[in-house]
């Protein structure tokens, strides 16, 4: 809420640009299986939203619909004023605006960390190689792995790989960052370094939509917590409200399980 | 983290120092032989028998190929010596085996083409070479046209035209293989991508092509290329008699190549595609820079096997009347001037050594590439 005023006027004079991500009555089926049921959610610029919920509730599917890694069948998705339709140009614009961080990093193992970070700026944004490298080094410095620029992903620890993946996404200068359980493939002692990176990103005012089970992170960073179950958004509340006073029975049960 | 571990009084742990392995488990030639060659009476027997057999075979070979061989001297000397190879026959026929009936005064053109080709290939294959992209451009773009012009001749710049019917020998074998290799890999990649494409018609066409070609013997493909292409294509556009089997070879290997490349593509995890898509990287860039480099490195052994097969299969073009290397050996062998007891064996031995030399080279190169990649970046 607080960062909105800082960012929105710079991004665009248009009113609807103040909303970074907007889902309207989103529905998706896998064959006959109804995965997402009438989801509506709007994330303002600068807002940090944490999505949680039991396994199989459709969190990944929702976040992957936003940049068209999955196709939705009904409803509207608008990212920074561009509506996601079958129009390939819009898909490219949206993918340029939304950076994604995956559970399993998905770094390119045959390229160095620096090459991972410069590939998209060079080939998608047509940036000069020299410029792309200096941008990449800057982001690698910010996630504190600048000394690993010349290493291959296989030579990095899990936490370092995930921070490299965050830097890679940031190199495209996205307006929104989507995270799909960025810490759940990591050993416990590496979770903190990735969460710290994400916290500093949040402190800089980045709009974030983050699927995670790290409730400490949600409490500290999120403006809003969204609870999903069986393909529906069951509750959306401030972290304080959600953690101290969950209204739905399902959320109470979920919290009892993970906070035990 | 609210719980803290209870801290007891620390004690000092004494670590055991490392010692060298005892003598009887240390590798030495004697322990190795005892363990692997003479561990039981039966294995002693096998060792002795097979060593004997190997020594006998090698000595037979050496006595034929080296010790009793005729190195210089004419056909009379060879006829008088039925126990050894007649290398002077190969020496006398070497030009023919290399160039076929290509006119002697113009053979420098073949040499030049081959030297340029060898330099470009070395440049491409040498891992740390500078500017390999330039090499690739020259080799795949400029060289085929320039090379053909040089071999064939261009009246306008004063190079007499040499009809392809005069070409023969090793130059044909190399030409066929290089053209086959250069075109079958890219074509195979395209077919493999097509077969995995989401577009149903593209996929159907690729599956149809691959399955039809793989279901037909190579000789049939050669006959079809040679005799049926002129029926379908208008006279003026009918490719040269040498080009037709080349096209056949490339199209044939491409189907096998496609299946090998597809195996590599299938080994790439979905996350790699998603990582690229999430960055907004388009299909062709993604394939070229992210997916194919990884997929092709996985299947290098299969690709090289196909190359080796292709190289040896070029001998079959003799069947449509092209005088490749083996055919030249065959023609030289029956020359009445050289008739003698060991001429045929010498000719075939020479052919085998030459083919083996090329195939072994390819195989070694692929092994070194694999070792290099295994040492590099595995995740
Ligand atoms: N490609 C697919 N085809 C069919 N069903 C799928 C597919 N992908 C996911 N599903 C199903 O859709 C549902 C939602 O999956 P999703 O991955 O979005 O859950 P999630 O909330 O991210 O769970 P988790 O916390 O385990 O990651 C699950 O029941 C899953 O089995
Ligand atoms: Mg998930």
TrEMBL record, chain A:
Q: Name one GO molecular function term.
A: ATP hydrolysis activity
Metal-binding: present as a keyword of the record?
no
Q: Which SUPFAM superfamilies match?
A: P-loop containing nucleoside triphosphate hydrolases
PROSITE patterns named in the record? ABC_TRANSPORTER_1, ABC_TRANSPORTER_2
> What are the ABC transporter domain coordinates in residue numbering?
21-255
Question: Which keywords describe this protein according to UniProt?
Answer: ATP-binding, Nucleotide-binding, Transport
Q: Pfam families under this entry?
A: ABC_tran
Q: Does the keyword Nucleotide-binding apply?
A: yes
Family (UniProt)? Belongs to the ABC transporter superfamily.
This one is known as: ATP-binding cassette domain-containing protein
Q: Which organism is it from?
A: Rhizobium fredii
């Amino acid at each position: 809420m607080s960062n909105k005023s800082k960012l929105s006027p710079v991004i665009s004079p248009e009113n609807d640009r103040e909303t970074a991500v907007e889902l309207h009555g989103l529905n998706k089926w896998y064959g006959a299986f109804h995965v997402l049921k009438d989801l509506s959610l709007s994330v303002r610029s600068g807002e940090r939203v944490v999505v949680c919920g039991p396994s199989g509730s459709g969190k990944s599917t929702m976040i992957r619909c936003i940049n068209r890694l999955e196709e939705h069948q009904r409803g509207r998705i608008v990212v920074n004023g561009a509506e996601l339709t079958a129009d390939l140009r819009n898909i490219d614009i949206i993918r340029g605006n939304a950076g994604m961080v995956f559970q399993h990093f998905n770094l390119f193992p045959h390229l160095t960390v620096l090459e991972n970070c410069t590939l998209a700026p060079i080939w998608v944004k047509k940036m000069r190689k020299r410029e792309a490298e200096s941008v990449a080094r800057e982001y690698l410095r910010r996630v504190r792995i600048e000394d690993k620029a010349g290493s291959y992903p296989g030579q990095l620890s899990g936490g370092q790989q995930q921070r490299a993946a965050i830097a890679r996404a940031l190199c495209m200068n996205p307006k929104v960052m989507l995270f799909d359980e960025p810490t759940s493939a990591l050993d416990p002692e590496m979770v903190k370094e990735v969460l710290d990176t994400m916290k500093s990103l949040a402190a800089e005012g980045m709009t974030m939509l983050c699927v995670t089970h790290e409730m400490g992170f949600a409490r500290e960073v999120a403006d809003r917590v969204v609870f999903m179950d069986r393909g529906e958004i069951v509750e959306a509340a401030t972290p304080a409200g959600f953690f101290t006073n969950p209204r739905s029975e399902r959320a109470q049960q979920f919290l009892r399980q993970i906070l035990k | 983290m609210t719980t803290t571990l209870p801290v007891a009084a620390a004690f000092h742990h004494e670590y055991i120092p490392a010692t060298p392995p005892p003598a009887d488990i240390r590798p030495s030639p004697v322990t190795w032989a005892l363990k692997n060659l003479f561990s039981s009476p039966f294995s002693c027997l096998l060792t002795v028998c097979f060593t004997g057999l190997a020594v006998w075979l090698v000595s037979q070979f050496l006595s034929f190929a080296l010790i009793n061989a005729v190195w210089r001297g004419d056909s009379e000397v060879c006829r008088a010596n039925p126990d050894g190879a007649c290398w002077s026959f190969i020496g006398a026929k070497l030009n023919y085996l290399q160039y076929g009936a290509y006119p002697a005064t113009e053979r420098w053109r073949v040499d030049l083409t081959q030297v340029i080709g060898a330099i470009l290939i070395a440049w491409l294959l040498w891992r740390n070479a500078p500017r390999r992209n330039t090499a690739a451009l020259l080799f795949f773009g400029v060289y085929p046209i320039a090379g053909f012009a040089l071999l064939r001749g261009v009246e306008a710049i004063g190079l007499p035209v040499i009809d392809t019917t005069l070409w023969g020998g090793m130059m044909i074998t190399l030409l066929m293989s290089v053209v086959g290799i250069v075109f079958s890999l890219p074509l195979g990649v395209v077919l493999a991508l097509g077969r995995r494409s989401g577009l149903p018609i593209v996929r159907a066409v690729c599956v149809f092509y691959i399955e039809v070609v793989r279901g037909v013997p190579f000789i049939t493909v050669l006959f079809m290329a040679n005799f049926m292409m002129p029926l379908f294509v208008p006279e003026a556009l009918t490719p040269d008699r040498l080009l037709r089997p080349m096209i056949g070879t490339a199209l044939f290997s491409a189907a096998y190549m496609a299946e090998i490349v597809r195996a590599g593509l299938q080994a790439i995890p979905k996350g790699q595609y998603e990582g690229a898509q999430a960055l907004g990287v388009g299909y062709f860039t993604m394939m070229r820079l992210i997916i194919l480099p990884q997929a092709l490195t996985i299947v290098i052994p299969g690709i090289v096997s196909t190359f080796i097969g292709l190289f040896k299969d070029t001998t079959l073009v003799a069947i449509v009347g092209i005088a490749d290397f083996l055919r030249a050996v065959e023609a030289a062998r029956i020359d009445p001037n050289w008739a003698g007891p060991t001429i045929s064996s010498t000719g075939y031995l020479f052919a085998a050594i030459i083919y083996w030399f090329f195939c072994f080279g390819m195989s070694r190169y692929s092994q070194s590439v694999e070792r290099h990649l295994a040492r590099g970046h595995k995740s």
